[in-house]
Amino acid sequence: MKRKKDNKRIYYFGIGLLILFLILGIKLYHLQIYKYDKFRSLSEGNRTAVIPISPPRGYIYDRNKKVLVSNKLTYTLSVIPDKVENLDNLSNELSQIVDLSQTEIREKINSNSSTEPVKIKRDISREVLILLEENKSELPGLIIEETPIREYVYKDLASHVLGYVGEISAAELKKYSSQIYSSRDIIGKTGLELFYEKYLRGEEGAKLIEVNNLGQKVKTLAVEEPTQGNSLILNLDYDLQKFAEKTLQQQIQKLTERAKKNQKKPQEELDEDAITKPPKGGSVIISNPDDGSILAMANYPSYDLSLFSGPISNKKWQQLNQNPLHPLLNRATNTSAPSGSIFKIVTAGAALEELGIEKDDMFYDPGYFKVGGVEFKNWYPGGQGDISFVDAIAWSNNTVFFKLGYRLYKKDKTLLQSYAHEFGLGSKTQIDLNNEAKGLVPGPKWRKNYFDKRANQIWYPGYTINLSIGQGNLRVSPIQISSLINSVANGGQLYQPLLVDKIIDPQGEVVKNLKAKLFNEIPVSDEHLKIIKQGLKGVTTYGTARRSFSELPVTAAGKTGTAQTGSNRPNHGWFAGFAPVDDPEISIVVFIEYGSSSSNTLPIAKNIIKEYFDTQSEKKAETE
């Protein structure tokens, strides 16, 4: 009986196995025969993918080969669009891991080719990397690769000069359509990163990888290495740049504190030049007068370039972009304002050449100059009486220059404007940075074009009188004033100011030497330039800036400028000068926006001159 039961069990077990093998056979037929063509196609489509390799950009060095900008490796998240099974699901999942909205992710993927990887996020953190690795099996199409990004070694040092990079925009892609750019590229956005983009960018490489059906990397099949971009060696000196930035920042912060304290004091306790509102910012330019090369260019406020190494968050961008102090603005090149009395250098040159003025010519200053019923006042109450031409420069006597401006107007309505243009005002200096301000030298033609009403189009002599001391509608930038003061220091040559000295390839070979263009020979004779220099020397030795420039290791020359801004706003403060007087090595321009008085610029100029020549003495002692 037991034997019959065992046989029955074996029978049913055999039947079960037969049915199971039959089912498996049908399934195998379905997969291997019926679905063969489909799976073969999918296998081929999923087998390989070409991943572009971003090239490392060239380095940026100071004049002594100190690295200011380099590269570092980081992780970048990309997506292969045609491997994405469900875009809504992918964008939803990724938005919870990376700092991007679903809309941003979808737009990035939809606006690009379906076959090439699309960069979704640069510089992802290790925490985000771990989350992506944990979830990538559920997110088809993800590729994570190491890529180079910018490393700004000193963060906010020379930020307006160096500039930053970012993802190429649609407008930029269109602009660079004649060059090999794609929507995944990183390009220079501001500063030298933008101006020298074609040298810094390098050549893209590529990697052929094997991927699975989820678009995930299995292994690398072949690599074409990218080529690093060329590097820049600047005229900029790291130590001088750092000192200029520190000195500018300290002075503006000091003025800000002083203004806050003065706001609490009764008006009768304040001096006429007392600062009562904080400055908005400022700039310093230090250059070599012999060729205009820029040794330092400081701006305050500044900003942290490392914010732009990876993609900057919207919050941080808004904080920078909407800051009322405009930290992204390069005040050295992109700001223009009245120059105040620094313009008297132009008026002096024109008067010496055109009016036959001699250095010892005497003028009488009653404290004002009156013409056509309008009284133009000197800054010195009651006037200075009899004063020579050279002393008028040293003491910045308005009355003397009012008279000279009026005489130039009587000779030719546009004569003073012509000299201003000869000194480079009203034109871009062509410094190697983008978005340079052109400025304005106002004259009869400008007034006629600017105003609609006939009564406002007339150029009256009073406008030239105002122009003669750098007031009115005159607009100049600190870099233009730098070129102007250099032309006086070097004997009359107006050069293109340059930040970059040379460009080298990755092997260190020179690709290009940058040579400053000589734009103009100032139409002021050597003899007359010496007279102007004598007056500028008087400014620092016995004139308006005498107290600030005592106890320096060298004798400096310079000119102060307090520029009126109107609308009850504080004046701008200016200083432009060079040292030593007889054989200039450096020139300095200081501009403080709404700095109240030129006297507030003088501590900056003095400290920089002292630091520079003390350092030079130390270097000389070390070599001896």
Automatic annotation (TrEMBL):
It is a single-pass membrane protein. GO terms for cellular component: plasma membrane. Its main location: membrane. Residues 257-283 are annotated as: Disordered. Residues 282-609 form the Penicillin-binding protein transpeptidase domain. It is found in: Cell membrane; Membrane. The keyword Cell wall biogenesis/degradation applies. The chain crosses the membrane at residues 12-31. One of its GO terms (biological process) is cell wall organization. The keyword Transmembrane applies. Keywords: Cell inner membrane, Cell membrane, Cell shape, Cell wall biogenesis/degradation, Hydrolase, Membrane, Peptidoglycan synthesis, Protease, Transmembrane, Transmembrane helix. Residues 53-220 form the Penicillin-binding protein dimerisation domain. Residues 257-268 have a biased composition (Basic and acidic residues). One of its GO terms (molecular function) is penicillin binding. PANTHER family: PEPTIDOGLYCAN D,D-TRANSPEPTIDASE (PTHR30627), PEPTIDOGLYCAN D,D-TRANSPEPTIDASE MRDA (PTHR30627:SF2). Belongs to the transpeptidase family. NCBIfam families: pbp2_mrdA. This is Penicillin-binding protein 2.
